[in-house]
Amino acid sequence: MSSPVVFIDGDQGTTGLLIQERLRGRTDIRLMTLDAAERKDLRRRAECINACDIAILCLPDAAAREAVAAIVNPAVRVIDASSAHRTQPDWVYGFPELAPGQAERIANARRVTNPGCYPTGALGLLSPLVQGGLIPRDYPISIHAVSGYSGRGRAGVEEYEGAGAADAPSYQIYGLKLAHKHAPEIQQHAGLAQRPIFVPAYGAFRQGIVLTVPLAVRLLAPGVDGVALHAALARHYAEAVHVRVLPLHDSNAVEHLNPQMLNGTNDMQLSVFRNADDGQVLLAAVFDNLGKGASGAAVQNLDLMLSSQ
């Protein structure tokens, strides 16, 4: 039996290059990519996507939709790393740890949509707590996150590593119209009744994310505090390989969170910080925006799908 063919469409972007790097040398699959001269050839791209077993799309949203529309071979399975299909009901959301049975749904899916980088952290924190009834669905959620500049793709890398790098800002908040495309994704998959306030930022480091969600205990379900929130997260991720919940006694000693501490991995650390006297809790996630937030998640989903081939 021949090895499954995996086609990476958009293999020269930051996510596509890292997926190739993670898959290079594997003997259980055959990688297929397009030559530089063929990348804008719609006919050639359609031929490749219909000749593979699993396609990984690392494309802008419009191009990802075009690629999916070009599929006529019903055997082709797809992992879409763009945001084009993340709220579509006929696509399986590619966050294996999100809910019981999610890994199995991904393994058996024809169409899988990779989560966004920021939603990976936000949903990793919020989904178990909202679905478990500890955070009310109508809680006024606010999310602040700082990502490495590679989160902007080539434009971010060029700004911070190109000819004008000396003039690049050390820190910049964006999304000031509060209409970031990740907010509906977070709302839907967390089960929130209203759109969260999401404030993203870029720092002068290449990759890594720290994301935080502040909570007021008085607005939570009766009897819920930081200890209960931590216990719920610890239970949810007890068997997870790539998501770790920092023990409370360790979080009590933490003074700083380094967004780069898990770079190069597919892991995510979740933490709960508490001010019991004032009834305040801070949920925090740290992970690599190019790892668990992009290429690592895609390869994790690929392996699940290969397990059912």
TrEMBL record:
It is found in: Cytoplasm. It catalyses: N-acetyl-L-glutamate 5-semialdehyde + phosphate + NADP(+) = N-acetyl-L-glutamyl 5-phosphate + NADPH + H(+). Pathway: Amino-acid biosynthesis; L-arginine biosynthesis; N(2)-acetyl-L-ornithine from L-glutamate: step 3/4. The keyword rRNA-binding does not apply. The active site is at C117. CDD domains: AGPR_2_C, AGPR_2_N. InterPro entries: AGPR, AGPR_dimerisation_dom, AGPR_type-2, NAD(P)-bd_dom_sf, Semialdehyde_DH_NAD-bd. The keyword Oxidoreductase applies. Residues 5-106 form the Semialdehyde dehydrogenase NAD-binding domain. GO terms for cellular component: cytoplasm. One of its GO terms (biological process) is L-arginine biosynthetic process. It holds the Pfam family Semialdhyde_dhC_1. GO terms for molecular function: N-acetyl-gamma-glutamyl-phosphate reductase activity; NAD binding. Keywords: Amino-acid biosynthesis, Arginine biosynthesis, Cytoplasm, NADP, Oxidoreductase. Its EC number is 1.2.1.38. Gene3D superfamilies: Dihydrodipicolinate Reductase, domain 2 (3.30.360.10), NAD(P)-binding Rossmann-like Domain (3.40.50.720). PANTHER family: N-ACETYL-GAMMA-GLUTAMYL-PHOSPHATE REDUCTASE, CHLOROPLASTIC-RELATED, N-ACETYL-GAMMA-GLUTAMYL-PHOSPHATE REDUCTASE, CHLOROPLASTIC-RELATED-RELATED. Catalyzes the NADPH-dependent reduction of N-acetyl-5-glutamyl phosphate to yield N-acetyl-L-glutamate 5-semialdehyde. HAMAP family: ArgC_type2. Belongs to the NAGSA dehydrogenase family. Type 2 subfamily. This is N-acetyl-gamma-glutamyl-phosphate reductase. The gene is argC_1.
